[in-house]
Write a structure and sequence with these properties.
The chain has 317 residues and is of the alpha/beta class. The protein has 2 domains: 131 residues, ATPase, nucleotide binding domain (Nucleotidyltransferase, domain 5); 172 residues, Nucleotidyltransferase, domain 5 (2-Layer Sandwich), CATH 3.30.420. The protein is 37% helix and 20% strand. The chain has 10 helices and 12 strands. The strands form 3 sheets. The protein has a 5-stranded mixed beta sheet, sandwiched between helices. Strands 10-9-8-11-12 form a 5-stranded mixed beta sheet. Strands 5-6 form a two-stranded antiparallel ribbon. Strand 8 and strand 9 form a beta hairpin. The chain starts with a strand and ends with a helix.
Length: 317
C-alpha cells in the first residue's frame, strides 16, 4: 500500500492525516498542541511518527503552514505563534528526518487548492479563495495553477491598504483589510465602542469579546453589532470588487470562522460588491459561495500539493 501524509500547522493545533494513494478520506488522523517554545519541528516530527504506517510506502509529505514562506525552497520566513521558525528550512528538516519528498506552501494557498480540488471550486479554472478568520488570507488559482509570484509570496490579499493611516494591522502596517474586517478587527471594534459608552447587549458578555459574540448580538438585532458587521462587510465587498478586476475569477469562495455569521455578513458584502465593480461584466457567470471543506481544507490542500509534487504525477501532467 502507498500513502501520502498531509500536515496543517495552526496557531493552536498541529494536525496530520494519512491518506492512501488515490483516496481523499484519511486512513488515520492525529493532532497535538502547537508548542509556543522549544523546537516545534520536533513536535511535528513526533506527530508524523505517530501516524506513520506500519507497512507500506509513504510517497511524500505535504505541509500547510502560515507564512510568509518560500514554497520552492521550503523555508518558513516567519509564522504567527511559532517564533522559533524564523528563516527555518522546514522542508529540509522533514526530508532529512523521514527520507521522503516534502512540499510546503502557505496555509491559505493550500486551503484554496483543497477547495479547488475537492470542495466548492471543483470544475473551475480561475478561483479566488478568501478566508476571513483571526486574520484574512487568500489563495488564487489562475488557469488551473496556484499563483505564487516570484518568491512564493503572492496573494496576501488581506494586506492591501483599505484605509490609509487606519487601524494597526497584525503585520505592523496600518489600514489593511485584515485590520478592518477580520474576526480580530470585529472584536476590537466592539470593545472600542463599548469603551466609548455605546449601548449594546455586548456589555453583558464575557470579555474579551470575540467575533462570534458580535455575530450573535447582530443576529439578535443589536444596533452596535449590526453596524460593525455591516462596515466589515462593506470593506470586504469593495476589496473583493478590486480582486475581481485583477484576477477575473469564475468563482469566489469565502471561508473562515467569520463567514459562519451568515447573511448579516454576506448580504451587505454582496450588495457592496455589486455596487463597486467597474462593469457588471465581472459578475456575469460569477459564483459567490462559501467553502465546503471547513477545517479540512488545509489538510486536503496539503494532500493535493504532495500528490502533484510527486515525480510520477508530474510526469503524467
Amino acid at each position: 500500500m502507498k500513502y501520502y501524509l498531509a500536515v496543517d500547522v495552526g496557531g493552536t493545533w498541529l494536525r496530520a492525516a494519512l491518506y492512501r494513494e488515490g483516496e481523499s478520506l484519511p486512513a488515520a488522523q492525529r493532532r497535538a498542541r502547537t508548542p509556543r517554545e522549544g523546537r516545534p519541528e520536533a513536535a511535528l516530527a513526533a506527530l508524523l511518527q505517530e501516524i506513520w504506517p506500519a507497512e507500506g510506502e509513504v510517497l511524500g509529505i505535504g505541509v500547510a503552514c502560515p507564512g510568509p514562506l518560500d514554497p520552492r525552497r521550503g523555508v518558513v520566513f516567519a509564522t504567527p505563534n511559532i517564533p522559533a521558525w524564523r528563516d527555518f528550512p522546514l522542508a529540509d528538516y522533514l526530508r532529512q528526518t523521514f527520507g521522503v519528498p516534502v512540499a510546503i506552501d502557505n496555509d491559505a494557498n493550500l486551503a484554496a487548492l483543497g477547495e479547488w480540488r475537492y470542495g466548492a471550486g471543483r470544475g473551475h479554472h480561475h478561483v479566488l479563495y478568501l478566508t476571513i478568520s483571526t486574520g484574512i488570507g487568500a489563495g488564487v488559482i489562475v488557469a488551473d495553477r496556484l499563483l505564487h509570484g516570484a518568491r512564493g509570496l503572492a496573494a496576501e490579499l488581506g494586506h492591501i491598504t483599505v484605509v490609509p493611516d487606519g487601524p494597526l494591522c497584525g503585520c505592523g502596517q496600518r489600514g489593511h483589510l485584515e485590520a478592518l474586517a477580520s474576526g480580530t478587527a470585529i472584536a476590537r471594534q466592539a470593545e472600542e465602542a463599548l469603551a466609548r459608552g455605546e449601548p449594546s447587549i455586548l456589555a453583558t458578555q464575557p470579555r474579551p469579546l470575540t467575533a462570534a459574540q458580535v455575530a450573535q448580538a447582530a443576529q439578535a438585532h443589536d444596533a452596535l453589532a449590526q453596524r460593525i458587521f455591516t462596515q466589515a462587510a462593506e470593506h470586504l465587498g469593495r476589496a473583493l470588487a478590486g480582486f475581481l478586476h485583477i484576477f477575473n475569477p469564475s468563482i469566489v469562495i469565502l471561508g473562515g470562522g467569520v463567514v459562519q455569521a451568515g447573511e448579516i455578513l454576506l448580504r451587505p458584502l454582496e450588495a457592496t460588491l455589486r455596487a463597486s465593480v467597474m462593469t457588471p461584466a465581472y459578475l456575469d457567470g460569477l459564483t459567490l459561495t462559501t467553502a465546503q471543506l471547513g477545517d479540512d481544507a488545509g489538510l486536503l490542500g496539503a494532500l493535493a500539493l504532495t500528490r502533484a509534487s510527486h515525480p510520477a504525477n508530474q510526469a503524467t501532467k
